[in-house]
Amino acid sequence: MIKMSFDSREQALQKTPPEQPPGANPAPILRDRTPARRVALVGFGTVGRAVAKILCERRNEAGLLRLTHICNRNVERKKQPWVPSEVIWTEDFGAILNSDADIVIELIGGLTPAEELVRSALNAGKSVVTANKQLIARHGPDLLELASANGCQLEFGASVAGGVPVLPALRTGLCGDRLHGIAGILNGTCNYILSRIETDRIPFSEALEEAQARGYAEADASEDLDGGDARAKLSILALAGLHVRISPGDIRARTIRGIDAVDFDYAAELGCTIRQISRADLKETTLFADVGPSLVPASSPFGRVQRNLNLVLTSGEYGGDMAFLGAGAGGDPTAVAVVSDLMFVAESLSAGPRPHRPLQLASPKVSCDFETPWYLRLVVKDQPGIIAGLAAILSAHQLNIDAVLQKPGFDKSALPFVITLEPCRDAQLHPALQEMSALPFALRPCLCLPILR
Ligand SMILES: NC(=O)c1ccc[n+]([C@@H]2O[C@H](COP(=O)([O-])OP(=O)(O)OC[C@H]3O[C@@H](n4cnc5c(N)ncnc54)[C@H](OP(=O)(O)O)[C@@H]3O)[C@@H](O)[C@H]2O)c1
Asked: Taking CB atoms and a 6 Å cutoff, what residues make up the pocket around ligand 1?
């Protein structure tokens, strides 16, 4: 019943293109060559609602997409007067799977029941567009394989960096290169907190409270602060850009919780600031990957990213470095990425079924053993012999001191000071750090940040 009514409406549209008033922009060319694809939306929250809005407002203009269903739990409370009356509101995934929708948009988030829904849709021959980073980070390769085996598509352009089109760029504009490195500011919450501490030298706790009050951080912000969110995104970027299959849990994540205003004072002395940086470098059969707070030059692209923006830099063998900057979250920017994926899928579907091609993914060893200079910040009870004690440990581990920084004016009973080290491997440094943190005058574990030049 539903199928017939949509088919007939679509046929009518194709037979009688709307007349254009004189001087009006012509209808998009896609409209003439591509039949409208039926789209079912699952999840009518922040992003889902913004996606529906674009699809409804632009339905005559971007005629290649037609919203047919909106699915959400307790759906009655979600209904909106601006959604056309022919769109079916439902709480039943089964109704979507049994419908004539060509493309399912998954925007409920999380793993359960999103994973089952996406698998069922792909098995039913429907293409899927999702913004779900958890799902793609954990099951992306399997789901891409499933999509290909069923002759349909899976797109997830909004799952990293929200509205910044970095994943589509990896899929199309950069696929002619051989990328070997990806680095980014991928978590807007961390960037908001760090750039607020930087600007006003407020304590970490105050910056976090402010981010929560503004809706940039959840009440439990652990996933953001401790790097879980960013490493899931980094694993998706590595999948799409470096063609590797890695689990987010294999990437070391360091928390930003230990950073305080004084670290920005010391970083500034070194011409740097502090950002949560996610980086992955593919070298032969090893993927070097790390997520966590790092010193970056204040004048560098990373150093200039303020508040909750995202920035991704890619490095390719042929094309060199590229940068992608913009809003990493928010209903509207993320919805643009989802609708762009929908348009890409709709066009691809019109090209006919594609032969099944198994995914070509490497499974490299994952290591965090980067070689970099380091920033070590200690908080000590001031007494004679501190530098000598620390220097003895560093020397025993063959680590070279680059500089010792001590700003005046701090309470001698809890004195923060900094040692910078010349480049060394992470694995060489960490045993020394443990010994340094166990010294009797050390009041807290040593904060250790890579310096990225
Ligand atoms: N928000 C952003 O800025 C952003 C940016 C990039 C990517 N994303 C991703 O986009 C996806 C959606 O995010 P969002 O911010 O729109 O989330 P959201 O506001 O929480 O919306 C999720 C929607 O799905 C519904 N839902 C949840 N579980 C369901 C279930 N089992 N059955 C039916 N409906 C269910 C929710 O209903 P209730 O109203 O009952 O809870 C809600 O309407 C997530 O994967 C997220 O990671 C979001």
From this structure: 43-48, 72-74, 107-109, 113, 131-133, 158, 162, 329-330, 334
| Of 374, 366, 229, 185, the residue nearest 289 (C-alpha) | 366
Helix intervals (H) in 16-84: 29-33, 46-57
Establish whether 233 is a catalytic residue.
yes
Domain 371-450 CATH class label: alpha beta
**Bond from prior residue into 113 cis (ω within 30 degrees of 0):** yes
How confident is the model over 285-305, as pLDDT tens digits?
A: 999 999 999 999 999 999 999
Output the CATH code of domain 2-11+24-163+333-350: 3.40.50.720
User: Among the atoms of ligand 1, which is closest to the Cα of residue 110?
Assistant: 45
Q: Whose CA is nearest to atom 40 of ligand 1?
A: 73
CATH of domain 169-327: 3.30.360.10
Pair of tokens at residue 134 = 């958890």
Task: Please give the model's pTM, rounded to 2 decimal places.
Answer: 0.91
Burial group, residue 30, by CB count within 10 angstroms (0-12, 13-18, 19+): middle
Task: Compute, in angstroms, the gap from residue 281 CA to the centroid of ligand 1.
Answer: 32
